[in-house]
Design brief:
The structure is a single chain. The chain is an alpha+beta fold. Helix content is 26%, strand content 33%. It has 2 domains: 289 residues, no CATH class; 64 residues.
C-alpha cells in the first residue's frame, strides 16, 4: 500500500496508552468575520452609529465615517429550507459583544463592549446580569438602519399621548424624561407560492309565495349549491417576529416597515446599539408563517364564492418555492412607571410610528360616563314627576319615550368609552 500515514486531514491527539500514537480528524476550518473594534482613528474615542446621519460618529472629536449602505431592498437573497443552507449559514454577530440578561422579565439583549447600561430596555428593570454574548446563533444577513433619532421619538410619542383625553395630565412629563433605547429586533421573512383547490356549499337567498289560511304570503329560504375554485397566490416577505419579549399587538401596529430599504448586515450598524438574538427558532417561525399564509389563502378562496353564506368548506393547499431570510428591524423602546406599574412604548426606528400602553385616568372617564348618562336619567325623573302629578298620564308619556331613547344612546356611548379606555393599557 502506498497510502501515507496519517491520512490526509488527520492530526495527532493525546493518547492514553504510552507508545501508541492516536490520530483524529482535523477540525473543519470555518469562515469567521474579523472582530471589529469601533474606535475613532483620530482620537481613539468610542464611536457609535448615528441615526441622524447614518454613519459612525465620534462623541469626542466629531469624526464621521459613513458605513457601507448598499441598499439591496426586497431583492435580497433568500434561502431554501435545506440542510446545506443551514450548514453554510454564518453564525454570531461579526464582532465581540456582551449579553444583558434581565432577572425580572427574562429578556436577553446583546450590547457593544463599550456600552455601560445596566437597565433592561424591555421592562426598565435594573436586575440584570452581564455575560459574554453567545456566538452560536445565526447571523442576520440584512437589516434596516435607524433613521429616526431619540429627539424625534419623544416628539412623536408626545403627539401620540396627546391624541387621547383619557390619559393622566402628568403623563407627558414622564415620557419626556424617559430613555428611548434603540434596539434591533429579530424577524424572519418568508416567501412561498401557494396553490389551493377549494369546495363548499354556497347559500343563495330565494323567495317563494305560499298560501296560509287563504292568504298569500312571501317567504325566504336558502338554496344551497356546491361550488369550487382554484387560487394561486405568491406570498412575499411575510414577517414573523423572532422575539417573545415584545407584545405582538404593539409590533403589529408598528409593522409598516419599508423593506425596500434593506441593506446588507455589517457590524458597524450595531455600534453603540443593542440587538436581540432570536428566541423563536426558524422551525417555530415557519410553522407560524405557514398558518398565517393558510389563513390568507383561505380568505381568498372564500372570496371566490358567489355569496358569503358558506358551509362544509374544504381546501387542499400546497406550498412551493419556499424561502426565508433572517433580518433585523429597528425599534426604540421606552419603559416608564406610573402608580407602580410598568408601561412600554415602542417607536418604529425607520418611520417613527408609535405604539404602546397608556395608563387611564379613570376619574376623567367616570365623569365623562356620568355626563353621558345624566340627560337620560334627568328626563326619566321629569317624566316620573309629571306622571305622579298628571291625572291622565298623557303629559308624561312623550317625555318618558324621549328619556328612554336618550338613556339608551347614553348607555351605548358610555359602554364604548369604557371599552376604549380599557384598550389603552390592556395590551
Amino acid at each position: 500500500m502506498n497510502e501515507t500515514f496519517p491520512p490526509e486531514n488527520y492530526i495527532s491527539t493525546e493518547s492514553a496508552v504510552p507508545g501508541i500514537e492516536v490520530y483524529k480528524p482535523a477540525p473543519v476550518d470555518e469562515e469567521h468575520r474579523e472582530v471589529v473594534d469601533f474606535r475613532c482613528p483620530r482620537c481613539n474615542g468610542v464611536t457609535a452609529y448615528s441615526a441622524a446621519d447614518g454613519g459612525l460618529t465620534c462623541a469626542y472629536c466629531g469624526y464621521y465615517e459613513p458605513p457601507p449602505q448598499t441598499v439591496v431592498g426586497k431583492g435580497v437573497e433568500a434561502f431554501e429550507f435545506t440542510v446545506e443552507t443551514m450548514q453554510r449559514a454564518a453564525h454570531g454577530w461579526g464582532d465581540a459583544r456582551k449579553e444583558l440578561v434581565c432577572n425580572s422579565c427574562g429578556a436577553h439583549t446583546t450590547l457593544s463592549l463599550d456600552m455601560l447600561t445596566h437597565t433592561c430596555p424591555f421592562c426598565g428593570s435594573n436586575q440584570v446580569v452581564q455575560l459574554k454574548a453567545p456566538q452560536d446563533v445565526l447571523r442576520p444577513r440584512f437589516l434596516i438602519p435607524f433613521t429616526v433619532d431619540a429627539d424625534a421619538c419623544r416628539r412623536q410619542t408626545g403627539e401620540w399621548l396627546a391624541s387621547s383625553w383619557m390619559t393622566p395630565a402628568n403623563l407627558q412629563r414622564l415620557v419626556r424624561t424617559a430613555d428611548f433605547t434603540p434596539i434591533y429586533i429579530p424577524f424572519w421573512t418568508f416567501d412561498a407560492q401557494a396553490s389551493a383547490d377549494w369546495r363548499a356549499e354556497v347559500g343563495h337567498t330565494r323567495t317563494k309565495t305560499v298560501t296560509v289560511n287563504g292568504k298569500r304570503q312571501t317567504r325566504t329560504y336558502t338554496e344551497w349549491r356546491w361550488e369550487s375554485g382554484h387560487v394561486e397566490r405568491f406570498i412575499d416577505d411575510l414577517l414573523v417576529n423572532g422575539s417573545t419579549r415584545l407584545s405582538q399587538i404593539l409590533l403589529d401596529r408598528l409593522n409598516n416597515y419599508e423593506l425596500e430599504q434593506l441593506v446588507a448586515y455589517q457590524p458597524e450598524f450595531l455600534a453603540g446599539i443593542g440587538a436581540q438574538a432570536y428566541d423563536v427558532t426558524l422551525d417555530e417561525a415557519w410553522a407560524s408563517g405557514r398558518e398565517q399564509m393558510r389563513q390568507q389563502v383561505k380568505q381568498a378562496c372564500r372570496g371566490q364564492a358567489s355569496t358569503s353564506k358558506i358551509r362544509n368548506f374544504s381546501m387542499n393547499l400546497d406550498f412551493s418555492q419556499e424561502s426565508w431570510r433572517y433580518i433585523l428591524l429597528p425599534v426604540y423602546l421606552a419603559a416608564y412607571r406610573y402608580h407602580d406599574r410598568s408601561y412600554q412604548v415602542m417607536v418604529n426606528g425607520q418611520t417613527g410610528a408609535v405604539a404602546g400602553q397608556r395608563p387611564v385616568d379613570w376619574r376623567k372617564v367616570g365623569l365623562a360616563i356620568a355626563a353621558m348618562l345624566a340627560p337620560g336619567v334627568l328626563l326619566g325623573v321629569v317624566a316620573l314627576a309629571l306622571a305622579a302629578t298628571a291625572s291622565d298620564g298623557e303629559t308624561s308619556a312623550p317625555i318618558g319615550v324621549v328619556a328612554a331613547i336618550v338613556f339608551v344612546l347614553g348607555l351605548a356611548a358610555a359602554a364604548y368609552t369604557f371599552q376604549t379606555a380599557r384598550s389603552l393599557d390592556d395590551v
